[in-house]
């Protein structure tokens, strides 16, 4: 029996694409199980008071996830996508158990180191695999579906974990969700997911340079050092995407560690805090179903610029509010701004990077993006300790506005839809 021919496109690869969407939802769920609960656990069970110290778990997560992104990209280009995905899920299994049985805060930090490795290896790999499968025409749609699944699961699981915590206590009930997610994901990734590197090789064989010559210097045989330099500093679109991703996740890292504590100042219940926190990734996740495909039609740059500006405005609303209604509006707007940015930045990397080093380019971009978790947690903690919780949000609003300006000035439009060819 001959092997099925490799074909690019979402419809041609619908079954595998849908399976990878489901796997990425489980990746997001691993984060959602703890986001509402851990800041409360820090104070109630471990007696922590300093914001900077409480945020150590977010910083540990962000730094290890950033490093794991690079290895995910490098190893997926070298050894294939599927082995990296399976190994990433093996790192997830101990996480919920460590959180359930933690006797001091450093067990929580260690669990988040493992979670960061899990997230870096699995999320990066599902991103690359979806870009492999769909080809150049529908990258925005593919990234929208991928990120919607992941962050929709963050929202749903955050809400469910908050409910379980209120009904049954902070431990162990919320973390049993993560244990179930890890077991199911290992089964799906190990047995049913198929390797996609052959699709990337087919894409590379069809790759053509842009008519305007913009990417002539980005040939197929760049070294790892050259890829890092282009994505980090030299290439205008790639480096603009990297800084935009970092600031976006700075806001997410800040919200992860700070928002539950900020919301608790108004004597809200755990369920209300869980709902507020779920609104942000919920709108973010659902919005990407629209914004990813929209970027395939109208282009990437203006959507990213407007999204970063909207995030800045949303943070102003949150910083100026002191009650549930204002925070609800702010988190909804923050989710909408993030939805405009998140899949579109990944699509920019897919547009510009050559298929032969796509995995490494995505890895470098995600290194910078996920360092934002650590920067947001540390910056937010330091400013909160010195000036208060609201001041931390004001600082993040200013940084987001500056990021929007950088994208507007430096990034060029990377997506030029190919003309539709008539069917033979």
TrEMBL record:
Compartment(s) of residence: Cell membrane
UniProt cross-references to InterPro entries, sorted A to Z: MFS (IPR011701), MFS_dom (IPR020846), MFS_trans_sf (IPR036259), MFS_Transporters (IPR050171), Sugar_transporter_CS (IPR005829)
Membrane topology, from the record: Multi-pass membrane protein
Pfam families assigned to the protein according to its UniProt record, in alphabetical order: MFS_1
Major subcellular location class: membrane
Organism taxonomic ancestry: Bacteria, Bacillati, Actinomycetota, Actinomycetes, Micrococcales
Record-annotated Major facilitator superfamily (MFS) profile domain positions: 17-415
Organism: Brevibacterium daeguense
Spans traversing the lipid bilayer: 12-31, 51-72, 84-108, 148-166, 173-193, 303-321, 327-350, 371-387
Protein name per Swiss-Prot or TrEMBL: MFS transporter
Keywords: Cell membrane, Membrane, Transmembrane, Transmembrane helix, Transport
